[in-house]
Amino acid sequence: MQSVKSVQTDRILRAAIGLLILAFVYLLYVSIHERVVVVGDSAPEFTVTADTGRTVGLPNFGGKLLVLNFWATWCPPCVEETPSLSEFARRFSGQGVVVLGVSVDKDEKQYRAFLQQHRPAFLTARDAAARINADYGTFKYPETYIIDARGKVVQKIIGPADWADEKMISYVSSLL
Predict the structure, then answer these.
(1) Looking at the structure, do residues 149 and 106 belong to the same domain, yes or no?
(2) β-bridge partners, 56
(3) For residue 71, which of 20, 42, 79, 129 sits 20 to 30 Å off, Cα-Cα?
(4) Which domain holds residue 88?
(5) pTM of the full structure
(6) What residues pair up with 70 in beta bridges, in sequence order?
(7) What's the domain count of the chain?
(8) Using CA atoms, how far apart are residues 113 and 96, in angstroms rounded to an integer?
(9) Hey, is 125 helix, strand or coil?
(10) Same domain, 77 and 115
(11) How many CB atoms lie within 10 A of CB 133?
(12) Which of 136-140, 151-155, 159-163, 165-169 shows the lowest per-residue confidence on average (mean pLDDT)?
């Protein structure tokens, strides 16, 4: 049989463990929540070297609408999305829209092979260290941010999109 002192110690320990778990969950939530970019937020600034050799970053798109797409070669929905995103980029290229696809691939050979095979019609870059997508809080691919000329996120799309869909075309046209 447990003594009264032992029962009290047990209750105190359980309460302390419960509080520690709640504090841990809260800190985890806050750290993740602060890093996830949502509609209405200012887009985090970044700089990356595109496959064209040009250094691009958020401030370099002056006055244009930026469609920032995070993707990977090992992501089937990303691969499926590439043709419609290419068509979208061609359609809006002269209208003040820039599409930048940032790959999180670590394997450069696989990345280069993908570009060779699919020939995306938009600006591409590889962020092997995954710094940019971490700044945006991206962890599901593909994930796309539509960023206006002032640097505000006006749309966030988690998962693949049909960029040839008339609703998407109409929405983007309304932002121009």
Answers:
(1) yes
(2) 48
(3) 42
(4) 47-175
(5) 0.79
(6) 102, 143
(7) 2
(8) 29
(9) strand
(10) yes
(11) 21
(12) 136-140
